[in-house]
């Protein structure tokens, strides 16, 4: 097979504790250096928390696996300083087209709105993604990446966890105050704790082939029901960097996975799709069965599960890594506050609550897509085909066509960390919602709101008119400066319509921020370190703000 | 809250019944099934209210099992 990527080999270096036979207690150990574990490690380092990362292997994800990375995950990576590299290498896209036979029945645009820093989606091979994350992690003194280090047992004590780690130099113990299990869908930590991973396995098989070819398909997601080149089944096409294309063929439950992987079976399928005269080479081929499963709770004492170890979805909708990364985003600031003694450890229960809500939403969406693509009963197939038939002429039916509902972030509507609205606001920025971006000018440079939401709590204050005592009344500035100097990591920004010369001001000359957040003079937003809205008011009230901060930190 | 209307609403019930039956004339059972599915989707969209649909489905399912 053709290779467009050469796999890095990360060397094993025995840790000092292993060499000297001493057992050390670390504040945080992350198990698994996949996309989720690496994201968590980068975020801990940003927050000044030293972290050990243990991974059983010595390279990045083999085969392409995940391809599509959504805006929200990219925003997290951008905050951690690696997003731009991914976007630069990746294929940016936002249009999806759905065909029935050879007719297009439905088209969607995942980001119809202008003025966002981060695109709706990029396609990038998972090995590049992990390579970029590892490269970034290696720059940090606070991240201790240990390859060929497999966790073989985990035991919880009253105030710490003891791990046994198997390396080429033998087995040794590592202790941690907290453990983040990011060890993937087959999580061994989950098994060590005897936890059930319940859900549904879908009775269907999919051939996934990454092929290298020169082709002029657009950078869009194309999905076919019953295409002429693969009758009675579905197919999917995605562009990746380096002239690699992801092809996905539904095979049905009766297909023999070993046979279907053989090049002599795969090549004719690809030729049927691309035309016999399109030259291509296979880069990677695999046959999958998909499932939707999750843990009931993601926190088990001092062990927290994140990513595929906590939840698994079918790939239609790209909700795997795209929901694992927000797990890390949600967890790390909370654990950093707990480690710092600034929040009670019960704050970590909100990690489980909020991310279980997200996992349910992802599983629901992914299950519905799978039910549409692989109808489970005869009548389900009849309705599916009727929808596809109607969709050609009937606009209403297009909204029912489900070839995957692509990953969107979860709003933590019912989270106890939210302060419910006491004032009326329009728009989507409700408490619990992920903050949406807007262009702003900062220190004379064009930038983005998301860049100001830098991993601390952030207060936005919509500058008032002079009738309210100037753009930022002195008592407001004083109160906010006081909070910024206080124990919680917090920054505040005045939002102005034009430059007023206020330190840290975000100049909203295009008015997008005011529009998207429904700001009026004097409006206040409190935004969490993970860029979700915690609270908002029409007028500044120092006591209400303190109370909301307490609430958002579980105090 | 919207409610499923089950009182008689047709001006001419026999005409409506005949419409339904005639539309299946000369169709195989498979074709009829397809027609019915499309009809249900069109009518469901026309109603546009998931609660009414749920109520109709509940009533329709009575006695089926
Ligand atoms: C065909 C396919 C297509 C997909 N497409 C998409 C997509 O388009 N978008 C998307 O978002 N997601 C997609 N996914 C899902 C995505 O690949 C996963 O969600 C993602 O890899 C999960 O990341 P993770 O870090 O949780 O786990 P993993 O990537 O599985 O990483 C787990 C890590 O833990 C290590 N490990 C395991 N056990 C131990 C142990 N005992 N001790 C130490 N280390 C251990 C492993 O070596 C590995 O490095 C796809 C998946 C498949 C299979």
From TrEMBL, chain A:
Statement: the UniProt record of this protein carries the keyword Ligase: no
Cofactor(s) listed: FAD
Keywords for the protein's UniProt record, in alphabetical order: FAD, Flavoprotein
One Pfam family recorded for the sequence: FAD_binding_3
SUPFAM superfamilies tied to this protein: FAD/NAD(P)-binding domain
Entry annotated with the keyword Flavoprotein: yes
Entry's Gene Ontology molecular function annotations: FAD binding; oxidoreductase activity, acting on paired donors, with incorporation or reduction of molecular oxygen, NAD(P)H as one donor, and incorporation of one atom of oxygen
Residue ranges constituting the FAD-binding domain according to the UniProt record: 27-363
Source species, domain of life: Bacteria
Protein name: 3-(3-hydroxy-phenyl)propionate hydroxylase
Organism listed in the record: Azospirillum oryzae
From TrEMBL, chain B:
Pfam families reported for this sequence: DUF2783
Source organism superkingdom: Bacteria
The protein, known as: DUF2783 domain-containing protein
């Amino acid at each position: 097979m053709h290779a467009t990527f050469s796999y890095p080999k990360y060397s094993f270096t025995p840790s000092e504790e292993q060499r000297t036979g001493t057992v050390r207690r670390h504040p945080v150990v992350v198990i698994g250096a996949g996309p989720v574990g690496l994201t968590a490690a980068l975020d801990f380092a940003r927050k000044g928390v030293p972290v050990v990362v243990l991974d059983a292997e010595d390279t990045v994800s083999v085969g392409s696996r995940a391809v599509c990375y959504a805006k929200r995950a990219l925003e997290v990576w951008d905050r951690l300083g690696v997003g731009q590299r991914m976007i630069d290498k990746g294929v940016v896209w936002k249009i999806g087209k759905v065909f029935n036979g050879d007719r297009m029945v439905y088209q969607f645009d995942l980001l119809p709105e202008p003025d966002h820093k981060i695109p709706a989606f990029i396609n990038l091979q998972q090995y590049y993604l992990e390579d970029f994350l590892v490269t970034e992690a290696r720059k940090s003194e606070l991240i201790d990446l240990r390859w060929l280090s497999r966790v073989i047992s985990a035991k919880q004590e009253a105030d710490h966890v003891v791990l046994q780690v198997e390396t080429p130099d033998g087995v040794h113990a590592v202790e941690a105050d907290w453990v983040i299990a990011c060890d993937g869908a087959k999580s061994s930590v989950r098994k060590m704790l005897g936890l059930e991973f319940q859900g549904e396995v879908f009775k269907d098989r999919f051939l996934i082939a990454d092929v290298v070819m020169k082709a002029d398909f657009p950078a869009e997601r194309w999905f076919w029901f019953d295409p002429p080149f693969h009758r009675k089944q579905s197919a999917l096409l995605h562009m990746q960097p380096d002239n690699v294309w992801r092809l996905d063929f539904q095979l049905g439950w009766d297909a023999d996975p070993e046979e279907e992987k053989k090049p002599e079976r795969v090549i004719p399928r690809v030729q049927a799709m691309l035309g016999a005269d399109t030259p291509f080479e296979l880069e990677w081929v695999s046959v999958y069965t998909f499932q939707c499963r999750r843990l009931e709770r993601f926190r088990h004492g001092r062990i927290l599960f994140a990513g595929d170890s906590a939840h698994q979805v079918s790939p239609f909708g790209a909700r795997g890594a795209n929901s694992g990364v927000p797990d890390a985003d949600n967890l790390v600031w909370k654990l950093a506050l707990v480690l710092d003694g600034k929040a009670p450890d019960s704050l970590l229960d909100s990690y489980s609550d909020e991310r279980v809500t997200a996992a349910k939403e992802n599983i629901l969406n992914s299950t519905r897509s799978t039910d549409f693509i692989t109808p489970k009963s005869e009548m389900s197939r009849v309705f599916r085909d009727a929808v596809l038939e109607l969709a050609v002429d009937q606009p209403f039916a297009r909204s029912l066509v489900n070839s995957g509902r692509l990953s969107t972030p979860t709003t933590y509507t019912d989270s106890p960390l939210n302060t419910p609205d006491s004032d009326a606001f329009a728009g989507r920025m409700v408490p619990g919602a992920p903050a949406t971006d807007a262009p702003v000018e900062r220190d004379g440079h064009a930038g983005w709101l998301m860049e100001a939401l830098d991993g601390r709590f952030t207060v936005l204050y919509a500058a008032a008119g002079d009738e309210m005592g100037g753009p930022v009344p002195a008592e407001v500035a004083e109160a906010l400066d006081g909070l910024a100097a206080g124990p919680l990591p917090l920054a505040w920004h005045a939002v102005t319509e034009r430059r007023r010369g206020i330190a840290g001001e975000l100049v909203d000359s295009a008015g997008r921020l005011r529009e998207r957040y429904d700001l009026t003079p004097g409006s206040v937003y409190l935004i969490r370190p993970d860029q979700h809205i915690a609270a908002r008011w029409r007028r500044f009230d120092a006591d209400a703000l303190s109370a909301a901060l307490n609430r958002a930190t579980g105090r | 809250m919207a409610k499923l209307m089950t009182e008689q609403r047709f001006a001419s019930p026999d005409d409506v019944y005949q419409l339904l039956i005639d539309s299946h004339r000369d169709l195989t059972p498979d074709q009829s099934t397809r027609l019915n599915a499309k009809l249900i989707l069109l009518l469901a969209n026309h109603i546009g209210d998931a609660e009414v649909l749920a109520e109709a489905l509940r009533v329709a399912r009575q006695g089926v099992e």
